[in-house]
């Protein structure tokens, strides 16, 4: 039986890149999310197949490391596979190469998903019926863990954002890739122009709906930044970003 790895080749477009011509982290996440949908279809648990059962996938956590960030015009190959279930979380891995060097990964990633009931938005605990032979046991990064903002770091107010129509996804709430875009927009330009991103971790705790206002707080430990988002008293996400000198 062939290894259950789904693969896609594409070119980095100009509209996906930042002021340094590197692909934005939020667009990287868009590609990871899209190929995850393709991977779920391979495993017979696609968006459409789950909707027939009133179920859907919700991203719980994601972590990816960028060794060599692709730039405008680069041809890349992105791979994904299901790592299977651990507890109530389903794990999915990612790997990216430049097309002219398919032996050297430029990105490694892992993610954790929950299976939710569409009507109740509660965890689905029943029998999935997924084919276990379609999961692959190779790891890229360790399973995602909870992000803890160190107590010694001061968390400062970093403004707010009211969710608009352009933030929404097909589930009717803010797309999880937008959270990274919001986090980047908070960081100082003078810092970002001299740095490159190499590690991103996000934990998602609560959906954010149209019209809700997300209040951000930020904490910094040299080249590691923590951005948290709350709606009222409800913590919705925590993102950790690590940078190096460009």
How would you describe this protein?
The protein is α+β, with helices and mostly antiparallel strands and 246 residues long. The chain is 15% helix and 42% strand. It has four helices and ten strands. It has helices at 25-42, 47-51, 176-186, 189-192; strands at residues 6-11, 55-66, 75-86, 89-98, 101-117, 156-162, 195-204, 213-221, 224-231, 234-245. A ten-stranded antiparallel beta sheet has the order 1-3-4-5-2-7-10-9-8-6. Strand 3 and strand 4 (89-98) form a beta hairpin. Helix 1 runs antiparallel to helix 3 (176-186). The longest helix has 18 residues, at 25-42. It starts with 5 loop residues before the first strand and ends with a strand. The model has no long low-confidence stretch (mean pLDDT 94).
- Alpha-carbon distance between the termini? 43 Å
Q: What is the gyration radius calculated from CA atoms? A: 18 Å
SSE topology string: EHHEEEEEHHEEEE
Oligomeric status: single chain
Strand order of the largest sheet: 1-3-4-5-2-7-10-9-8-6
Q: Find the count of extended strands (DSSP E, 2+ residues).
A: 10
- Helical/strand content category: alpha+beta
What helical percentage do the residues reach? 10-25%
Net shape: globular
Q: Let me know the largest β-sheet.
A: 10 strands, antiparallel
Mean pLDDT: 94
Q: Number of helical runs?
A: 4
- Enumerate the spans where pLDDT stays under 50 for 5 or more consecutive residues: none
Strand coverage percent: 35-45%
């Amino acid at each position: 039986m062939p290894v259950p790895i789904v693969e896609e080749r594409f070119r980095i477009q100009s509209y996906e890149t930042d002021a340094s011509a590197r692909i934005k982290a939020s667009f990287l996440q868009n590609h990871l999310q899209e190929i995850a949908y393709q991977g779920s279809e391979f495993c017979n648990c696609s968006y459409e197949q789950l909707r027939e059962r009133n179920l859907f996938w919700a991203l719980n956590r994601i972590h990816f490391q960028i060794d060599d960030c692709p730039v405008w015009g680069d041809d890349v190959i992105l791979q994904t596979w299901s790592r299977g279930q651990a507890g109530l979380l389903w794990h999915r891995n990612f790997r990216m190469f430049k097309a002219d060097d398919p032996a050297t990964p430029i990105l490694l990633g892992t993610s954790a998903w929950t299976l939710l009931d569409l009507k109740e938005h509660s965890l689905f605990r029943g029998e999935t019926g997924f084919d276990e032979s379609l999961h692959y046991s190779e790891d890229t990064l360790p399973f995602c863990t909870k992000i803890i903002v160190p107590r010694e770091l001061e968390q400062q107010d970093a403004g707010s954002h009211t969710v608009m129509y352009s933030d929404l996804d097909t589930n009717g709430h803010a797309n999880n890739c937008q959270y990274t875009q919001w986090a980047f927009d908070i960081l100082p330009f003078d810092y970002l122009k001299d740095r490159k991103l190499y590690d991103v971790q996000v934990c998602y705790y609560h959906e954010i709906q149209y019209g809700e206002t997300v209040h951000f707080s930020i904490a910094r430990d040299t080249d590691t930044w923590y951005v948290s988002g709350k709606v009222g008293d409800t913590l919705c996400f925590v993102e950790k970003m690590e940078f190096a000198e460009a």
